[in-house]
Design a protein that fits this description.
This protein folds into 2 domains: 144 residues, Creatinase/prolidase N-terminal domain (Creatine Amidinohydrolase, Chain A, domain 1), CATH 3.40.350; 218 residues, Alpha-Beta Complex (Creatine Amidinohydrolase), CATH 3.90.230. The protein contains 10 helices and 14 strands. The chain has a 6-stranded mixed beta sheet, with helices on both faces. The chain has a 5-stranded antiparallel beta sheet with strand order 11-10-12-13-14. Helix 3 links the parallel strand 3 and strand 4. The longest helix has 24 residues. The two termini are 44 Å apart.
């Protein structure tokens, strides 16, 4: 199985991480996020549901500790040569196996960074790891070390993001065509996902959100689907995925005769989205983008119906979510930089009237502003 990036690019990424480790006084990094492993080595698996850890020294040494099921997958998908196996048993403690690796690598008395924010590292598993580290070496949270580098995309990464954006557009074409009265939501969902797979795409890191009627106000995936009615609303949040890279869209589609307030909500959401795109430029902050969102929706009279965040970074993500760091919320000081990929969604939920309206696009930050990736526009579809 070929790597999805050149070995030179992967080496360059690891060199940048190593330089940052040295600047922070870290002798080694214990990597638990699957996204970080993929970014640095190409290692591609869903095995992170169980314990696994990638050891990386400041000098570039790589050792993966995982289960036997991922031994060959690690060799086939990554540049990692040294793969160690911890064995399943009733009293397995992979923290002991990790401690043995650290002993072998001369880490006693050293300072290690740990990716504490990782789906793989449950509270119980962290207790295993921490027991092996305490009294052996010092350690500190380094959860954002790799993430801060991942948010700036390379040309090769941006090519994958653009492929994902084209797939998202194909999915939206299907939704526009099928979202008619009497249509089962599952049929629309199946067609959207099929379009992405037919186009060469991958499973997304998040489940698509689809809901009609009052359930259009749910902005999380849930079970229990319905058929579209007359004069209905269909809420969609979805993404195209290519090589794990995402480009997301959010749209509300109406059927029948639109409620006048729906039309006003659409105008406000589109105005807010355009304001956020204008605010999204190098040197601005993620908090500044949120301010543009809030100002537009408050000014249109829909402030009470907006949410407390309006987007986040996207990249190569694994389940359970395509939401990446950082998020767009009030006061977030993270600075916008060229080649970031950001999903902005304007969500209005009128619970009193059971009306929903949401529009969202993915953009790439350019040297002077932002580029919208979708070719589908922000017009309101009424079937």
């Amino acid at each position: 199985m070929p790597l999805h990036f050149t070995e030179d690019e992967l080496t360059d990424r690891r060199n940048k991480v190593a330089a940052e480790m040295q600047s922070r006084g870290l002798d080694a990094l214990l990597i638990f996020r699957q996204e970080s492993m993929y970014y640095l080595t190409g290692y591609d698996t869903t095995g992170y549901s169980q314990f696994q850890c990638l050891y990386m020294s400041a000098g570039g040494t790589l050792i993966l500790l995982t289960r036997s099921a991922d031994l060959r997958q690690a060799h086939l998908t990554s540049v990692i040569e040294d793969v160690r196996i911890w064995v399943d048993s009733a009293d397995s403690n992979p923290g002991l196996d990790l401690r043995q690796i650290l002993e072998e690598q001369g880490c006693r008395g050293k300072n290690l960074g740990v990716e504490l924010e990782a789906w793989c590292l449950t509270g119980r598993r962290w207790e295993f790891v921490k027991a092996g580290l305490d009294g052996f070496c010092t350690h500190e949270d380094a959860s954002t070390l790799v993430s801060q580098m991942r948010i700036i995309k390379s040309p090769a990464e941006l090519e994958y993001v653009r492929r994902a954006a084209a797939l998202a557009d194909e999915a939206l074409v299907e939704a526009h065509s099928l979202a008619t009265p009497g249509r089962p939501e599952q049929e629309i969902l199946a067609a959207m996902e099929s379009a992405i797979f037919r186009g060469g795409g991958d499973y997304p890191a998040s489940r698509f959100i689809i809901g009609s009627g009052a359930q259009a106000l749910n902005v999380r995936n849930f079970t229990g689907y319905a058929d579209l009615g007359n004069n209905d609303q269909l809420q969609l949040e979805f993404g195209g995925t290519f090589r794990h890279y995402h480009s997301c869209l959010m749209r509300t589609i109406l059927t029948g005769k639109p409620d006048p307030r729906h039309l006003s909500m659409h105008s406000a959401a589109v105005e807010a989205l355009e304001a956020c795109k204008e605010a999204c430029r190098p040197g601005a902050t993620f908090g500044g983008i949120f301010d543009a969102h809030a100002k537009a929706l408050d000014g249109a009279g829909f402030g009470e119906h907006k949410l407390n965040a309006c987007g986040y970074s996207l990249g190569a993500l694994y389940p359970p979510t395509w939401m990446d760091w950082p998020m767009i919320y009030a006061g977030n000081p993270v600075v916008v930089e060229p080649n970031m990929v950001i999903f902005m969604h304007m969500i209005l939920l009128d619970w009193d009237r059971h009306l929903a309206m949401a529009f969202g696009d993915t953009v790439v930050v350019t040297p002077t502003g932002s580029e919208t990736l979708t070719k589908m526009g922000t017009g309101l579809t009424v079937n």
